[in-house]
């Protein structure tokens, strides 16, 4: 099945998606548009010999039409999910907090360049995190509150969390960012669990030193598994959402791993991608409850 989503979804986009499916040997069984201006679900039949090729073609068509076209098996759409895990920076909020800290320290461009390399998967996250933290040595602790006050939630975040809570799905932040900001989001969105990095502050100043354990890709994936086990959930009933290379391991663990407005490497590697719509589009991917 294909799920098509856009702020304003026209009939032409649905027609183009059906034509694409035909080129890969699939035919339209049924089309449901619960809110025709925003999303549609196309049920397809036939044997898909080249799933990766079809997925890649869907991403290309998504870019051309400015529509999210998501290839899903029916069981992922109808699964009874019990846990949803999220990256924080550039996923739940419209910023990379470490870059915001660097701006306050007057080294924004320098740190942002390292952040971008890490998110693209060009350098190891632990290495990049250690290098960036070292540059923040001496930053006044008072800037944390200033940054927190200006952070914006990602589009659709509040709608998504309201929908997840209505369905009884537990939620978690698994972030390479900082607990100070994760706790703020936890209070605002009603998030059940957080796992993030602790800023080392001494005498009111950020020391630039890294406190272990660093929450990297492996820690995110391991924590997702741990939370699922505690909730007695098989991994197929877990949702994971993130945008960077350090999210790929947790996206691969989850039954529904969604690359959200992600870097090209992450978008092409993840099983599912949302690049046009807000976070609330994920509710369309997990079906009604």
TrEMBL record:
Database matches in Gene3D superfamilies: HAD superfamily/HAD-like
Catalyses which reaction(s): O-phospho-L-serine + H2O = L-serine + phosphate; O-phospho-D-serine + H2O = D-serine + phosphate
The organism's place on the tree of life at top rank: Bacteria
Key words, A-Z: Amino-acid biosynthesis, Hydrolase, Magnesium, Metal-binding, Serine biosynthesis
UniProt-listed Enzyme Commission number(s): 3.1.3.3
Pathway(s) annotated for this protein in UniProt: Amino-acid biosynthesis; L-serine biosynthesis; L-serine from 3-phospho-D-glycerate: step 3/3
CDD domains to which the protein is assigned, alphabetical: HAD_PSP
Requisite cofactors: Mg(2+)
NCBIfam families for the chain: HAD-SF-IB, serB
UniProt family annotation: Belongs to the HAD-like hydrolase superfamily. SerB family.
Protein name, UniProt field: Phosphoserine phosphatase
Native source organism of the sequence: Pokkaliibacter plantistimulans
Upper classification of the organism: Bacteria, Pseudomonadati, Pseudomonadota, Gammaproteobacteria, Oceanospirillales
């Amino acid at each position: 099945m294909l799920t098509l989503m856009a702020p304003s979804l026209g009939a032409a986009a649905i027609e183009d998606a059906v034509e694409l499916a035909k080129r890969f040997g699939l035919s339209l069984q049924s089309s449901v548009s619960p809110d025709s201006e925003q999303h549609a679900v196309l049920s397809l039949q036939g044997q898909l010999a080249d799933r990766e090729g079809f997925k890649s073609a869907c991403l290309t068509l998504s870019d051309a039409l400015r529509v999210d076209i998501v290839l899903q098996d029916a069981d992922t759409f109808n699964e009874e999910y019990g846990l949803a895990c999220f990256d924080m920076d550039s996923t739940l909020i419209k910023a990379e907090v470490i870059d915001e800290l660097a701006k306050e320290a007057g080294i924004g461009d320098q740190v942002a360049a390292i952040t971008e390399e890490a998110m693209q998967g060009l350098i190891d996250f632990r290495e990049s995190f250690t290098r960036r933290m070292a540059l923040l040595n001496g930053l006044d602790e008072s800037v944390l509150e200033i940054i927190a006050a200006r952070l914006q939630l990602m589009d659709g975040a509040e709608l998504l969390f309201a929908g997840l809570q209505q369905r009884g799905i537990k939620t978690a932040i698994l972030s390479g960012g900082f607990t100070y900001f994760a706790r703020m989001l936890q209070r605002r969105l009603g998030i059940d669990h957080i796992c993030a990095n602790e800023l080392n502050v001494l005498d009111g100043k950020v020391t630039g030193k890294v406190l272990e354990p660093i929450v990297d890709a492996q820690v995110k994936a391991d924590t997702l598994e741990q939370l699922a086990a505690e909730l007695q959930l098989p991994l197929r009933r877990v949702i994971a959402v993130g945008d960077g290379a350090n999210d790929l391991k947790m996206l691969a663990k989850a039954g529904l791993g969604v690359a959200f407005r992600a870097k090209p490497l992450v978008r092409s590697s993840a099983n599912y991608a949302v690049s046009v719509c807000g976070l609330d589009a994920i509710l369309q991917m997990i079906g009604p409850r």
